[in-house]
Prior knowledge:
The chain is an alpha+beta fold. The protein has one domain (1-157). It contains three helices and eight strands. The strands form two sheets. The protein has a four-stranded antiparallel beta sheet. It has a four-stranded mixed beta sheet with strand order 7-6-5-8, with no helix packed on it. A hairpin with a 2-residue loop joins strand 2 and strand 3. The two termini are 35 Å apart.
Amino acid sequence: MRFHELPSEPLIIRASVSTYVVFGLMWGALLAGLILIPRNPGYWGVVALSLLGFTLSFAWIASLKLVIANGFISYRTLFTGTRSFALSEIECSDLAIGYESVSEHFKPPIRLVIRPHQSTGKKPINVNLKVLNKSDIARLMKILGSQVEKMKVEESQ
């Protein structure tokens, strides 16, 4: 497969600053609201649960990392771990929006699905595009070039 504009240095893509801001505002508003309400017997449990949600959200965001280097692509998330394969093993890439089946509801709603050849026995990489910077997505699309075949638009079930 041919790729366009392979980077001479490793390309490292992480979640955008706006993702941190959005999640910070959501959890910050909840925690600020908890500070303002009167304390009752279940108060500290709700605060602890909210702090756990805050911590897990930011751990998830911080774990997102896509790397293209030395002819390989690698994508790491908190929940799926790291998946990687050689760029030469890529069969195709699809932009997918929504879900085709119930089992896909654990995948990002807006994603780039990078599929290796079936003969490799490796699972596809589902890149969460919603949390990435638009300029990073554009760089990724330039590298993959003609590998991005189509856009699937499905209704959420």
